[in-house]
Amino acid sequence: MNKKILAALIAASAALSMGGAAQAANLVVNGSFEDPGFALPMGSYCYLGGPYDCGSVNGWTGGFPLMLTNSGPWGNPNTPDGNVLIGIQGTSFIQQTLNLAPGTYKLSWMDAGRGNYGGPTETYQVVVGGNVMSVESVNYGAGWTTKSLTFSATGATILSFAGQTNYDATAFIDKVEVNAVPEPQTYAMLLGGLGLVGWVARRRARAAA
């Protein structure tokens, strides 16, 4: 095979591999809250800050969010990923600083509603880099729902989930992920490489005829 064609194919393959690996890597530390950094027995809960303070959660800081496990006293459904979840209650919040290279990213997470309290709907903001990217409302007893959005970053970026309801409503949050979105050049290189493969195959077929 022509050396230039081989080099193009190798470059395209490497770009696709790097793009896929970047997309697959979750850039959020402890996105499912399974590493609280302290003992949280099954069926228990505590708060990050304020009364009943249980300390800090690895990777996250917050103002009075609820930290609880499956089978807790809050009517929470089983978590979609592991045994621990966060509850955004009233005006509490939780946040993390992400170290991101310049580019485009996809944020995904899951939320659900508190099931043992028939009070108001909990509304919370998803804030990325100081910008409100989404305002979500979670009804009483709502099951787990996947949410997602895309955003651009140029460096260190603060991600936060911040409650907006001045009542004892709760939105459960779990499985928070941020993944890089491959740049269009990656796909362009792959398509170019595949085109070269097709061209070589056709040329060889004609020569053999």
Automatic annotation (TrEMBL):
Keyword Signal applies: yes
Protein name, please?
Ice-binding protein C-terminal domain-containing protein
**One Pfam family name from the record?**
PEP-CTERM
Instruction: Name all Ice-binding protein C-terminal domain ranges.
Output: 180-204
Which superkingdom? Answer: Bacteria
Q: What is the lineage of its organism?
A: Bacteria, Pseudomonadati, Pseudomonadota, Betaproteobacteria, Burkholderiales
> Which residues are the signal sequence here?
1-24
The record's section on InterPro entries has: Ice-binding_C
Q: Which NCBIfam families match?
A: PEP_CTERM (TIGR02595), PEP_CTERM_FxDxF (NF038126)
Entry keywords, A to Z: Signal
